[in-house]
Amino acid sequence: MRAIISVIGHDKVGILAKVTAECAARGINVLDVTQSVLQDMFAMIMLVDLSTATTPMDEFADTLEAIGNEMGLAIHVMHEDLFNAMHTI
Amino acid sequence: MHTINTKDILETITMIQDENLDIRTITMGISLLDCCDSSSDKMLTRVYDKITRKAEHLVETGEKLEREYGIPIINKRISITPAAMVLAACENRDPLALAKTLDRAAKTCGVNFLGGFSALVHKGFGPGDSELIDAIPQALAETDFVCSSVNIGSTKTGINMDAVARMGRVIRETAELTADRNCIGAAKLVVFCNAPEDNPFMAGAFHGPGEPDTVINVGVSGPGVVRAALAKMDGGDLTAVADMVKRTAFKITRMGQLMASEASKRLDVPFGIVDLSLAPTPAVGDSVAHILEEMGLEQCGACGTTAALALLNDAVKKGGVMASSHVGGLSGAFIPVTEDAGMIDAARAGTLTIEKLEAMTAVCSVGLDMINVPGDTPAEVLSGIIADEAAIGMVNSKTTAVRLIPAIGKSVGEEPSFGGLLGAGPVMKVNTASPAKFIGRGGRIPAPLQSLKN
User: Fold this and answer.
1) A6 with B17: Cβ contact below 8 A
2) Which of A87, B239, B247, B348 has CA atoms 20 to 30 A from the CA of B378?
3) B135, B99 contact by CB (below 8 A)
4) C-alpha to C-alpha distance for B40 and B48, rounded to whole angstroms
């Protein structure tokens, strides 16, 4: 199963490091990363593979959301199928 | 293949975070036909056991899907076989005991509404129907989660005017018995013409007799997403508006279809339908009225509102129908006054009247929905409103419904509040010239010519 991690907020040092460290600690492989700055907002999107994850997806999502709150960022982990369903025929 | 389309991903996230996109309800339909028994006690035990067994994992599955997909699933609900059918076989029919059993089962399962304390009487009263209808006021006053509906007409059968007369009185009595709680009982009671058997939305959901044993139906929503999409358009004529609504409805419905098939797989219950509805909530940014205003009306209720709503309702269906393998339920734009911030404002301002709402129901997906009327509105006037709505539904081969709340002790302009998704809204003026003699005639309005399609 693959998921999309999205990080949206003001840019600061160490965002990518923090999120990838959380992934690595749970056996989650990062497949692709893209980032852009929209207006003054920073948006990073990661495609990750959860098939070797050591924690369930909902727990992982909760953890990242909490980290996001601490850093003043909105972090969401969402199943890849959602985006495929909405944006491809 | 590893691809990230930033634009698409951010669009979805914006829809969910800023524009109130959500799955409005996952509703499990459960047939109770195999619970019938001549002994009332045995029937009640079977009903409770079957509901709590079938829907045991409904809420936790919904919550898990919510977490994994990042889509809010606002309600998890249950619909059942019209209760009058379940009662029919009992020697001593006790509809109130059944309502309380249903309420208890709903609480055990953790759902927030259970629909189907219902009777289908569009051609006449069968065994159990009369007893159930008489028990509605008390049942809705003494339970928390049970919702009731009565189908009093259809295009095929015409309108049962004896039932129309009774339902006017039942609505009043239901409001009176819950007068201490802003008459909330009446907000849980819908009177239908052409009621769909697979509608997942409350308060009118029930599990029709033609449905399988259990089924998962999903209702999507997203008025805020449609409004935001229209707001981003740079000019454009109404064809362009309709195209934009279609494109947005497609995306919303694809999300609903995905959730419905996932829920169905995980619960091992067949997928029924996706109901492609625009269901507003009182939250700012989640209003159908604001979509109409975004199209160019000063306020919902202005001249042009019916045309704008017709365009919206049609475009939602056209966009949604290709996105789902099975579409059903009500599927269209809802116009519940107290649940829609824009409608509430328009009603307060006097721009939106009951007469205009009645015209709008000819082109929207349901009917006169969640409207506070003066507490002294006579039962015959309520019946007259029901008859008018049913006539619109019957002649146009569409579902129409009436969910009116007589605000006992309150008059025009006062604002009872129900809280939560049911919202709040002003008491609206009703034409009180008496239809008593017409309603008192009873009998049936014959089915219209358009019913003869064979």
Assistant:
1) no
2) B348
3) yes
4) 12
The per-residue pLDDT for range B320-359, each reduced to its tens digit, is 999 999 999 999 899 999 999 999 999 999 999 999 999 9
Q: Residue A81: exposed, middle, or buried by beta-carbon count in 10 A (0-12, 13-18, 19+)?
A: middle
8 Å CB contact between B25 and B75: yes
Which amino acid belongs to residue A31?
Answer: L
Say whether both B262 and B410 belong to one domain.
yes
Q: With a cut of 60, say whether residue B442 has pLDDT above it.
A: yes
Q: What element of type H or E holds B147?
A: strand B146-154
Q: Is A41 on the interface with B (CB under 8 A)?
A: no
Mean pLDDT of chain B: 95
Q: Tell me, yes or no, whether B203 lies in a domain.
A: no
Per-residue pLDDT, averaged over A8-31, amounts to: 91
Largest CA distance in chain A: 38
pLDDT over 90 (residue B360): yes
Residue B168 CB-half CA count within 13 A: 24
Interface test with B, best of A77, A78, A80, A81 (most B CBs within 10 A): A78
> Are A87 and B71 inside 8 Å of each other by CB?
no
Q: What are the beta bridge partners of residue A77?
A: A5
Pair B173, B245 in one domain: no
User: Could you give the CA distance from residue B330 to residue B194 in angstroms, rounded to a whole number?
Assistant: 10
Characterize the bridge pairing of strands B189-193 and B271-276: unpaired
- Judging contacts by C-beta atoms under 8 Å, the chain B residues touching residue A46 are 4
Which domain range does residue B304 map to? 226-451
Interface touch A4/B67, C-beta < 8 Å: no
What does the DSSP assignment read for B9-56?
HHHHHHHHHTS---EEEEEEEE--GGG--SSHHHHHHHHHHHHHHHTT
Q: And the tokens for B121?
A: 């009487």
What is the third-level CATH fold of A2-87? Alpha-Beta Plaits (3.30.70)
Cβ contacts (< 8 Å) between B14 and chain A: which residues? none
Residue B7 lies in a domain: no
Q: Which residues of B touch A33 (CB under 8 A)?
A: 4
